[in-house]
Specification:
The protein has 3 helices and 8 strands, in the order αβαββαβββββ. It is of the alpha+beta class and 145 residues long. The protein has a single domain (19-143), classed as OB fold (Dihydrolipoamide Acetyltransferase, E2P) (Beta Barrel), CATH 2.40.50.870.
Length: 145
């Protein structure tokens, strides 16, 4: 059976740019924490252990949907949250696995609590207390509002 060339080219194009669609449960189940050792210079910071499935996604394109959080008045620090700001991780609803650092190549024009689907390259943070455990770089987003 011969496959028409245009169908073959479309299939190759789609698979070449394939990304993994993540759900917030993937992030929750993909991480566990070690209790801080007495030698830890950052008391209270727990080093992350990522599942083999999550480690396999590091450096790969992913897509996840959540609420945009803007953390500074200059609008230069962005997070994606499982929940809107009023019920996000910082307000006691969920753990640190419910937020993702977003690094956009160009400053986005979205507003706080806007529901977004974000695509970008996933990176994992095992030991930097100044960042989220999950980060998406080269983020590109579309709004559902």
């Amino acid at each position: 059976m011969r496959v028409p060339l245009c169908i073959l080219c479309c299939w190759i194009g789609i698979t070449a740019h394939a990304q993994t669609i993540l759900d917030w449960s993937d992030l929750s189940m993909g991480i566990s924490w070690e209790l801080p050792s007495p030698e830890n210079i950052f008391p209270g910071f727990q080093e992350a252990n990522f599942s083999p499935e999550m480690k396999a996604l590091e450096g790969k394109k992913v897509v996840i949907t959540g609420y945009l959080l803007i953390l500074d008045s200059k609008q230069s620090v962005f997070l994606l949250s499982k929940n809107p700001m009023a019920s996000c991780f910082f307000c006691g609803n969920g753990g640190p696995e419910t937020v993702v650092d977003l690094i956009f190549d160009q400053k986005p024009s979205f507003v706080m609590d806007e529901l977004l689907s974000v695509e970008g390259t996933l990176y994992l943070n095992e030991n930097n207390p100044n960042a989220c455990y999950y980060r998406i770089e080269h983020a590109d987003a579309i709004s559902f509002e």
